[in-house]
């Protein structure tokens, strides 16, 4: 990590959090999955949310986005002074939460451009299509191609571009590097750094923990639905015990 990023992280740790979750508990039916998760993310920061398979990472992101499943039964979530815990998924989306799920959900039968335009139908609008193409030139080159025929990496770019087409405050990425070749991962990493430099706040869930930790300012590690680490991302990279126990790296 470069100097500027470290200074930014130090500075941000004294500022009030932009997104806060306090003691979140959620259930799929009778299954108690998210068991008292709290986290803070400062504006313009990237938080890596890590942990083994089944630790509750996706469930935590879905809880924040107010998807409904799992059902949040306790806790508060605030985004830029707005109470997400009182909202449904549509309200949370309007409040600026954008979840890019693992399967990317590119809409079949629509071109790249139509996928992006569809995201702009409901206000408030975010980035222009031209600006998204500047960030992802590959999408501009393939504007008229059907979205579902893009490569995995390009579909991930489209899914992120579609999130930016709305006016977002918190970007939630669930395993954005999954199934992608290292060179494409690197390309998406660069974009995420660029997005951060523009002040967008991001929570990234990744199995590729090393890549996520290199990108992130801070990290939260979950195990069995509970937070077992909350601190600087670079400290996780230096902590062999933590890496072995919870990340298998
Ligand atoms: N729809 C569901 N109904 C019941 N249990 C579920 C449901 N979805 C997930 N779970 C359970 O919740 C737990 C946490 O799952 P979750 O998907 O949040 O984990 P994760 O950390 O994202 O794992 P992975 O790294 O494999 O994606 C798991 O035990 C899983 O079986
Ligand atoms: Mg998951």
TrEMBL record:
- Protein origin, superkingdom: Bacteria
Q: Would the keyword Coiled coil be found if you checked this record's keyword annotation?
A: no
Q: Report the GO molecular function annotations.
A: ATP binding; ATP hydrolysis activity; branched-chain amino acid transmembrane transporter activity
Alphabetically ordered keywords of this record: Amino-acid transport, ATP-binding, Nucleotide-binding, Transport
Tell me yes or no: is Transferase among this UniProt entry's keywords: no
Q: Which GO terms describe its biological process?
A: L-amino acid transport
The family note in this entry says: Belongs to the ABC transporter superfamily.
Q: Which PANTHER family would you find in this protein's record?
A: HIGH-AFFINITY BRANCHED-CHAIN AMINO ACID TRANSPORT ATP-BINDING PROTEIN LIVF
Instruction: Give the protein name, as stated in the record.
Output: Branched-chain amino acid transport system ATP-binding protein
List the taxonomic lineage: Bacteria, Pseudomonadati, Pseudomonadota, Alphaproteobacteria, Rhodobacterales
């Amino acid at each position: 990590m470069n100097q500027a990023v470290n200074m930014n992280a130090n500075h941000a740790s004294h500022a009030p959090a932009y997104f806060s979750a306090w003691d979140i508990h959620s259930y799929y039916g009778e299954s108690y999955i998210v068991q008292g998760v709290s986290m803070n993310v400062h504006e313009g920061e990237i938080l890596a949310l890590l942990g083994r398979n089944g630790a509750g990472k996706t469930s935590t992101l879905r809880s924040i986005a107010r998807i409904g499943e799992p059902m949040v039964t306790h806790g508060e979530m605030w985004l830029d002074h707005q109470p997400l815990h009182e909202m449904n998924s549509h309200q949370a989306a309007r409040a600026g939460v954008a979840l890019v799920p693992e399967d990317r959900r590119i809409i079949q039968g629509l071109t790249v451009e139509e996928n992006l335009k569809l995201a702009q139908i409901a206000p408030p609008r975010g980035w222009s299509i031209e600006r998204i193409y500047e960030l992802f030139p590959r999408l501009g080159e393939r504007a008229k191609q059907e979205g579902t025929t893009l490569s995995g990496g390009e579909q991930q770019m489209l899914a992120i571009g579609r999130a930016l087409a709305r006016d977002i405050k918190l970007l939630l990425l669930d395993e954005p590097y999954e199934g992608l070749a290292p060179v494409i991962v690197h390309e998406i990493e660069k974009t995420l750094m660029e997005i951060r430099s523009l002040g967008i706040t991001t929570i990234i869930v990744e199995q590729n923990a090393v890549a996520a930790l290199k990108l992130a300012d801070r990290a939260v590690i979950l195990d069995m639905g509970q937070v077992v680490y909350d601190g600087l991302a670079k400290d996780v990279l230096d902590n062999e015990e933590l890496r072995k126990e919870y990340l298998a790296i």
